[in-house]
TrEMBL record:
It comes from the Bacteria. This is Hemerythrin HHE cation binding domain-containing protein. Gene3D superfamilies: nmb1532 protein domain like. Pfam families: Hemerythrin. Residues 15-124 form the Hemerythrin-like domain.
Length: 145
């Protein structure tokens, strides 16, 4: 995860980055569970429980502000399409006969997706969005930016 630009000092970015770490760890546990046949469905459920609210926070908060600002619309569109793709694969697992190779491929895409947000979108959003936008999406009023 990014630690060099200071974007984590913005409360929402800090929260999303912390969630990315938890998501990456859960994805790793799922990958291991698939490899070891050690209850991968439970690991999938754990990942989805983290991923779904995280994605909603991104799309309804940061991404909405970036769309409204206008300069990063295509990047946001691409990231939302990746959300849909990854969620679609993970959410469509046939629990009676799981097909794990597409899930493992989606985990690879998830890793790249998180990296793009951490090292691209998040730092860019800090310099792109005005303070008024951050005030609207900051989770805790009066938090340090």
């Amino acid at each position: 995860m990014c630690n060099y630009c200071g974007c984590r000092e913005f409360p929402l970015i800090g929260r999303l980055s912390t969630e990315h770490e938890a998501i990456a760890n859960a994805a790793g546990r799922l990958r291991t569970a698939v490899r070891d046949a050690a209850d991968p469905l439970a690991a999938l459920d754990d990942l989805l429980a983290l991923l779904m609210p995280h994605t909603a926070t991104e799309e309804d908060g940061l991404f909405a502000e970036l769309r409204a600002e206008g300069s990063m619309v295509e990047a946001v569109r691409q990231l939302c399409a990746e959300h849909d793709d990854i969620h679609g694969v993970l959410g469509a697992v046939d629990r009676s006969a799981p097909d794990w190779p597409p899930v493992l491929a989606a985990l690879d895409r998830l890793h790249r997706h998180v990296d793009n947000e951490e090292h691209g979108l998040f730092p860019a959003s800090v310099v792109t969005l005005p303070i008024s936008a951050w005030d609207r999406i900051t989770p805790t009023a009066g938090a340090t930016r």
